[in-house]
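User: My instructor asked us to take a sequence, write out its structure as tokens, and then describe one feature of it. I'm not sure where to start. Here is the sequence I was given:
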Amino acid sequence: MRFVDVNPFFYPFKGGIEHRMHDTARLLAQRGHDVTILTGRLPGTEEEEIAKEGYRIIRLESRLINVYNPPIISSKGVLEALGSLDADVVNYNYRWAPSYNKDLARYEGKKVFTYHNTWGEGMGWQAKLSEMNDNRFRRTLDTFDHIICVSRFVQKDLATRGVPAERTSMIPSCLSSFPKVSSEEGDFILSLGRLVRTKGLTYLIDAMEDVDCRLYICGKGPEHKRLSKQISDRGLEDKVVMKGYVTEEEKYKLMSTCKAFVVPSLWESLGLATVELMSYGRPVVSSDVGGLPETVGEGGLTVPPKDPAALADAINRLLLNDDLRRDTGRRARAHAETYDWKYHIERLENILEMVCNKRE
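Assistant: Let's start with the prediction itself. The structure tokens for your sequence are:
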């Protein structure tokens, strides 16, 4: 099968979509398929290369406007490139790049769309802009032969918007490796991720007034100054530490030795980062929103969003009960292991082949 996976961004740009593309390209190539990733060309990258994992990368001439992360991108010749690649089936991953949307809508070959985020995701003006974009994208979405959703929550959300259940399947984003679980435990809890409003960190900082444990917040983002001021205003400098960017080595040490992870997000479609956290055998306290309850399973405690008191109560339950904390950590690791590509890649392969073999 000649398979082409399309997204405006790919390595060295690294996000959830790009990691999924790399993993599935690697695994499908291992299973004997001819795999090409078609993407935009970022500064300093080659126009074409063969990854050591056995798949090809083709990068199109692109223009980028860096006003947000990821940037606005427009690439030339998407439709022409798809025609020349003569794929048996194409997968597309994005909804916010008009040059790609237009050409994918016009592409007449067999094609699948992978839905990574829910409709209108975001907060405030971003949510309104996102919903406008998704409403506009709906006509393009209807040109695809099948839709793959990264969580049951995303799949159900599409069903409420009139997408027939028979047109969708669920294949989660997964991990490609699992760390050794450490018996060492430090005296801190951990939050790890980009510092944006949708991560709900203001509520976690408020919750820390009633938690007797140190919190490390790791990551960068536009909310850094506001969160730092909140910590100072609350007098929590000795309890809440903004560590900023951490190296992979430091990240591993923190994830493998914390008492618990806290994920107070206001919205998540899947929460693969939460799965990664759980793979270290540590329990999670998360908001009961979007796909997070599905992701966390029995590996943590879920609380209502925007509720500092509930967050504090759940964190304290884990901190004050060693048996509960360790047992929940073991369940977290067991649940994370269900997000292993070895359990899902064959199903993805079957869906692609089904679309490939579908009669007109």
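For the description part of your assignment, you could build on this observation: The chain has a mean pLDDT of 95. Try explaining in your own words what that tells you about the chain.
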